[in-house]
Amino acid sequence: MEITNKGIKTWADEDKPREKLMSKGKSALSDAELLAILLRSGTRSQTAVDVARNLLGKVDNNLVSLSKQSLAELVKTAGIGDTKALTIIAALELGMRRRQQEVPVNKDITSSRDAFELMYPLVANCAYEQFWVLFLNKANRKLVIQCVSEGGLDSTVVDPKRIFKIALEENAAGIILCHNHPSGRLQPSNSDIKLTAKIKEAGEFLDIKVLDHLVVGDEKYYSFADEGCL
């Protein structure tokens, strides 16, 4: 005989995710409960909260890892079809964009943390390496941010000429380099170190200073400047 769940509707009001959100606020809900609100429904044998817990369990309850899941990967969880998967993807992307917009447009970039907060939303969900450059004016304010290279799982090819072409077009006084390590490992590779030195040398010739190079992992970063490697 098929076993069916009793459904969230049978729960006490204080335990129902939506009612709990309204009465106690968003901070009172677990990740699974918030995710269950997006899912709206479960299966015949699982509540929406159960489905959410199963999904989170597959990514070690890490929302950053969840945000990197593709549509094809999300729908492998029982109870999640294309519509629910797309809802999850859209919600997590909105959260990432909100984070980026929290940084004031005219904010001076005075530390590696300032640069990280600007760059992280751009590379956080990338399954492949990407190389971005933040171009700054003399007051260390953002002019533009551009992706100059996309690569594979553990490397990408960067052409310094392209970086400085953009820098000259934007009349940039300084640049901050940034690339992600999809593995989450923060330590720069030998090629990262050599590339940084090469770009720094070219920048000195053109009077465009390389202020930092960030290697970004899951919610963390390695700063060449902070580590005294520039």
- Number of domains in the coordinates? 2
Task: State the separation between the terminal residues, measured CA to CA.
Answer: 68 Å
Q: Summarize the biggest pleated sheet.
A: 5 strands, mixed
- Give the strand line-up of the largest sheet: 2-1-3-4-5
List the helices and strands and how they pair.
Layout: H1 17-24, H2 31-39, H3 48-57, H4 63-67, H5 71-74, H6 82-101, H7 112-123, E1 130-136, E2 142-150, H8 160-169, E3 174-180, H9 190-206, E4 209-216, E5 221-223
Parallel strand pairs: 3-4
Antiparallel strand pairs: 1-2, 1-3, 4-5
Helix pairs in contact: 2-3, 6-7
Description:
The chain is of the alpha+beta class. The protein has nine helices and five strands. It has helices at residues 17-24, 31-39, 48-57, 63-67, 71-74, 82-101, 112-123, 160-169, 190-206, and strands at 130-136, 142-150, 174-180, 209-216, 221-223. The protein has a five-stranded mixed beta sheet with strand order 2-1-3-4-5, with helices on both faces. α6 runs antiparallel to α7 (112-123). The longest helix is centred in the middle third of the chain and has 20 residues, at 82-101. The model has no long low-confidence stretch (mean pLDDT 86).
Features:
230 residues; alpha+beta; DNA polymerase, domain 1; Cytidine Deaminase, domain 2; 2 domains; five-stranded mixed beta sheet; 5 strands; elongated
